[in-house]
Design brief:
CATH architecture of the largest domain: 2-Layer Sandwich
Helix content: 25-40%
Largest sheet: 5 strands, antiparallel
Number of strands: 15
Structural class: alpha+beta
CATH superfamily of the largest domain: ATP-grasp fold, B domain
Order of helices and strands: EEHEEHEHHEHEEHEEEEHEEHHE
Strand content: 15-25%
Distance between the termini: 17 Å
Protein name: ATP-grasp domain-containing protein
GO molecular function, one term: metal ion binding
Strand order of the largest sheet: 12-11-10-13-14
Number of helices: 9
GO cellular component, one term: cytoplasm
GO biological process, one term: SOS response
Keywords: ATP-binding, Nucleotide-binding
Shape: globular
Number of domains: 3
């Protein structure tokens, strides 16, 4: 046992997405430990965490990789860390919003922000009733999705009814879904605004055909015909998908910062589009998991992981040195 700084705990389940984060931590010589969120245990009786800080990078798409148990486990772990006084980046409040699209709509409503007209259902049979109040086309969007998973478009009431009758609608791992008007984005692009420490970091326009309902511009994923655990492409710019940096209007940035403040998100992205029919700004997704855009230096002009690690260093508690096993001080 030696006196050394407690490591930062990086709590994650995807094997590829956070390599740039680990590289930046290694570059600075910061001690950290990789925490496998898919095969995790914790002791609720412990009084002190072995980590100086825990960074929550759990993904809502984990169930596509056979790791759905981690989504629900994370809520309890985050609550535990907060109770014993361990700083967690994107804690229990952020987790609750990230993993529940119905809560996201409620948050938009509470802030007076517009979003696509929607209803929330907990049984596929109610999709038809909800759709009667909506303009077609519509989408059925699972409550816990992530990376655009579990979104199905219906162009007609008859098509929706047939899908219900044939038990073809899966509401996802919590059996809850949104029934939502499909909105054609003006200019053929959606927008993602990344934030850090409650403030605007950068924004991107992502140009989409509208045929893929995976609106995950931080990675620019493409949904194949069958959902796959590995459909996200971290080297998106090399795949010919048009991405461009831009600065949103001041009122949009202000709205985004209000959203992340209300959701208690330390680092995350907010997605919106411009309704081609009305010109309205419609917010539609809150992401507490930010996989910063591939080739960020060329796309947005700087390395967001460097700024993220700057933030993590600033969050380390004063006097965070303690006697911990040497193996915990290395990744």
């Amino acid at each position: 046992m030696s006196l050394t700084q407690k490591p930062i705990g990086i709590y994650f389940e995807h094997p590829e997405w956070f390599k740039p984060l680990f590289a930046e931590l290694d570059r600075r010589g910061l001690p950290y430990e990789k925490i496998d969120a898919a095969h995790h245990l914790f002791n609720p009786a412990e009084k002190e965490s072995p980590y100086s800080l825990v960074v929550n990078r759990m993904s809502s798409s984990a169930y596509l990789r056979g790791h759905g148990q981690g989504i629900f486990h994370t809520a309890g772990y985050a609550t535990h860390l907060e109770r014993i006084g361990t700083r967690i980046i994107n804690g229990s409040a952020a987790t609750a919003i990230e993993t529940n699209k119905a809560r996201q709509l409620s948050l938009f409503e509470s802030l007076g922000l517009k979003y696509p007209k929607s209803f929330v259902i907990n049984h596929a049979s109610r999709a038809v009733d909800a759709a009667k109040e909506l303009r077609f086309p519509i989408v059925v969007k699972v409550n816990i999705g992530g990376s655009g998973a579990g979104i199905i478009r219906f162009d007609t009431p008859e098509g929706l009814q047939a899908a219900v009758d044939n038990n073809q609608i899966d509401l996802g791992i919590d059996q809850t879904a949104l029934v939502q008007e499909y909105v054609t984005p003006r200019g053929g692009n959606i927008h993602r605004v990344e934030t850090l420490d409650g403030k605007f970091l950068y924004a991107m326009k992502v140009f989409t055909t509208g045929e893929s309902f995976n609106l995950c511009p931080a990675e620019i994923c493409q949904i194949p015909e069958e959902q796959s655990a590995e459909f996200c492409l971290t080297e998106a710019p090399k795949k010919g998908i048009q991405v461009e940096a831009f600065t949103p209007p001041a009122e949009v940035i202000a709205a985004v910062e209000r959203i992340v403040a209300a959701a208690k998100i330390d680092v995350g992205g907010i997605e919106y589009l411009i309704d081609d029919r009305t010109g309205d700004v419609l917010f539609y997704d809150i992401n507490a998991l930010s996989n910063f855009v591939a080739d960020a230096v060329n796309v947005v002009g700087f390395d967001p992981y460097a700024r993220f690690v700057d933030y993590l260093e600033a969050q380390l508690p004063a006097g965070s040195k303690a006697a911990v096993p040497a193996e915990l001080a290395t990744a």
